[in-house]
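TA notes, week 10

Several of you asked for a full example with nothing omitted. So below is the full record: structure tokens for the whole chain, then the designed sequence directly under it. When grading your own attempts, check the secondary structure regions first.
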């Protein structure tokens, strides 16, 4: 059956930007469309929340959510505009000033509870063994349309990161909320932590969410303790990188793993790691993470924890070697450690024996 618009209605019309229909229509639900049409119809007029609610059937929380939706897409902006709305509608609840730690406090407004886990909603989702679900952007977008909670989460993450949530980032948030069943406030804590480390990519956010899940971090107290500890490790790594003259590039995964091992597993102090670096450069003439790792592993196995203990063992070695002279770089073996320079040279593919 064909349908036609009653042309008599064209006696009074108002404009709808074509770009909204072309680009944003697929993102809209009924609430946000109702609000937008009402605002466009009454462009330049001041309207209260009560008036908008009476005309559209939307509650004040729904009006606020819909305003945030269009503001996130850049269609609405606060301040002077062609749409005048009483300021109290735009106002958000007070938030604490952002700090590095602890993570930001959520607005008093509560996201709606949902009883729809991801697996039940998306029937064709496949679960990767031991990991998060494999899903498409279309499936994530469907969840965005279905779930007021996910729309709320997306808006808050967008504010936190200063960008529109879409594509891979939206996928990541849906996985955190539906698959890992993380509360919205914990997701915001996690995103804030990733941002504070300078690594807030969707892949990084999902990686940390899996770590939370695997470690059983399921309360605010556990999350805050983990984040504070991780922040301390992150600051320690930056200090060590600076002492080693590393700048202008990110650490490789191997370097990151070794830094975390020295700090978190071995519990080595900055002074001990710096001492290992100094010894490495003295003996090899350059920075070598593998050589440093040999030194620090040996100290850890021998429970050597202070530079004074290293000096004492160095003195004992010199005494046993006779004369108290420091052995040359080619002759020196540090105690019975596994980082004998001569042995490393002999095992090198480029080693050529002296004739």
């Amino acid at each position: 059956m064909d349908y036609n618009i009653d042309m008599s209605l064209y006696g009074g019309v108002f404009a709808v930007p074509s770009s909204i229909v072309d680009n944003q229509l697929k993102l809209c639900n009924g609430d946000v469309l109702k609000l937008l049409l009402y605002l466009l119809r009454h462009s330049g007029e001041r309207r209260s929340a009560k008036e908008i609610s009476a005309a559209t059937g939307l509650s004040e929380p729904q009006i606020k959510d819909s305003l945030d939706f269009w503001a996130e897409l850049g269609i609405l902006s606060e301040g002077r505009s062609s749409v005048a709305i009483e300021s109290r509608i735009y106002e958000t609840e007070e938030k604490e000033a952002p700090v590095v730690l602890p993570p930001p406090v959520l607005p008093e407004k509560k996201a709606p509870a949902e009883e729809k886990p991801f697996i039940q909603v998306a029937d064709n989702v496949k679960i990767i063994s031991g990991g998060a679900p494999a899903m498409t952007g279309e499936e994530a977008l469907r969840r965005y349309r279905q779930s007021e909670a996910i729309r709320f989460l997306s808006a808050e993450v967008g504010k936190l990161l200063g960008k529109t949530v879409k594509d891979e980032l939206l996928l990541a948030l849906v996985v955190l909320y539906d698959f890992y069943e993380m509360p919205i406030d914990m997701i915001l804590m996690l995103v804030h932590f990733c941002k504070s480390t300078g690594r807030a990519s969707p892949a990084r956010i999902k990686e940390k969410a899996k770590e939370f899940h695997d470690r059983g971090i399921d309360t605010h107290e556990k999350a805050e303790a983990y984040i504070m500890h991780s922040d301390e490790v992150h600051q320690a790594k930056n200090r060590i990188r600076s002492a080693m003259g590393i700048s202008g590039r990110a650490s490789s995964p191997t370097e990151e793993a070794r830094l975390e091992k020295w700090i978190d597993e071995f519990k080595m102090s900055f002074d001990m790691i710096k001492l290992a670096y100094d010894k490495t450069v003295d003996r090899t003439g350059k920075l070598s993470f593998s050589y440093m790792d040999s030194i620090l592993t040996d100290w850890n196995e021998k429970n050597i924890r202070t530079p004074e203990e290293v000096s004492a063992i160095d003195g004992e070695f010199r005494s046993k070697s006779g004369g108290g002279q420091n052995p040359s770089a080619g002759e020196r073996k540090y105690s019975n450690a596994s980082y004998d320079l001569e042995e490393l040279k002999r095992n090198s593919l480029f080693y050529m024996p002296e004739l």
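Confidence is low (pLDDT under 50) at residues 80-110, 114-130, 325-339, 344-355. Use that as a sanity check on your answer.
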